[in-house]
Write a structure and sequence with these properties.
It comes from Sediminihaliea albiluteola. The protein is mainly beta. Helices cover 0% and strands 46% of the residues.
Length: 109
Amino acid sequence: MRFYPLEKLINLHDAYIREFKIDNFQLLLIQRKGERYLIEAQCPHRAHPLDAASIDNGIIQCALHQYQFAIDDGRLLHATEEPCRGLRTFELVYEGNEVGVMLDEPSEF
């Protein structure tokens, strides 16, 4: 596992949302009501980007088909078509004045 820094704490504020690409991971760092979340950046239903999703009361809603997920643990709350898996969530790690994530290092071929 390796620490990947994402953002300096001083830059985070409510309504913050930013996508990060680390190797094969596309991650979305979000802050709402003082809480920070790190989730996969695409809806698992049809891979629509979630950076334009609506977020309210701990629920993120995909703009494409209005699938809803709990932002804290990624579980699927509402499906408008066939069910899909929940969102992948990632634990945030704090090092000094930065927030980041621990991810497996890419395999060497």
